[in-house]
Amino acid sequence: MRRTDREVKDVDEMIGIMKRCDVCRLALNDGGYPYILPLNFGLKAQDGKVTLYFHGAEKGKKYELLAKDSRASFEMDCSHRLVSSEENGQCTMEYESVIGKGKVEIVSEEEKMEALTILTDHYHETHFEFDTRAVPKTAVMKLVVEEMTGKRRVKGEH
Q1: Residue range 11-64, pLDDT digits in tens
Q2: How far apart are CA 123 and CA 33, in angstroms?
Q3: Domain coordinates of the chain in residue numbers?
Q4: Pair 149, 13: CB distance under 8 Å
Q5: How far is it, in rounded angstroms, from Cα 79 to Cα 54?
Q6: Superfamily of domain 4-151, CATH level 4
Q7: Is 86 helix (H, G, I), strand (E, B) or coil?
Q8: Which of 4, 37, 89, 110 lies 20 to 30 A from 135 at CA?
Q9: Which residue from 150, 130, 145 is spatially nearest to 21, judged by alpha carbons?
Q10: Model's pTM, two decimal places?
Q11: In whole angstroms, how far apart are CA 96 and each of 13, 31, 37, 151?
């Protein structure tokens, strides 16, 4: 990382950033060009290990690509705030972000309800009871994070 002064090294801080994000961009290998998807997600953090969960229809390009290569990179960012100074003609953006990588796999039917609960609870302040009728037609994926880095830009930094 070029700007080590902005690096977030603490895993718990990175998890905090991830919890504040509402979109995770997943990059898959598409034979030379990355295929990037903005996805809703949920996360499970246990003993410093992070697992991301995603859901979608049962078919589509992402599944075709994952069948060929399960490696993926991810990115999420939040806390955006434009900081401008009309006096000196400068502007910058505050942000927090986490990037990382891992392998994506389809979760088993036994894991699916827990994964969907983690995912839906990420977007609600209290537990959300979702309609389970769509579960059999929903594919759920997980990415066990192998490596991640965090970055933060706050006002006052150059």
Answers
A1: 999 999 999 999 999 999 998 899 999 999 999 999 889 999 999 888 899 999
A2: 31
A3: 4-151
A4: no
A5: 22
A6: Electron Transport, Fmn-binding Protein; Chain A (2.30.110.10)
A7: coil
A8: 37
A9: 150
A10: 0.90
A11: 10, 30, 20, 6
